[in-house]
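Lecture notes, unit on protein representations.

Consider one protein chain, 51 amino acids long.
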Amino acid sequence: MGRIDVDKIDYIISSIENLEYGTLVITVHNGQVTQIDATEKKRFDHAKVTK
């Protein structure tokens, strides 16, 4: 297993801190982080519509 670059760790932490709902996928190849995918979901309250 290789060492993880500090810039990659900082990016991962920042991504987690800025994510309210969603997923963060970290791809590792040969012991190295090669890709980070963030998918954010936005949730809206269900407001009743009155006529």
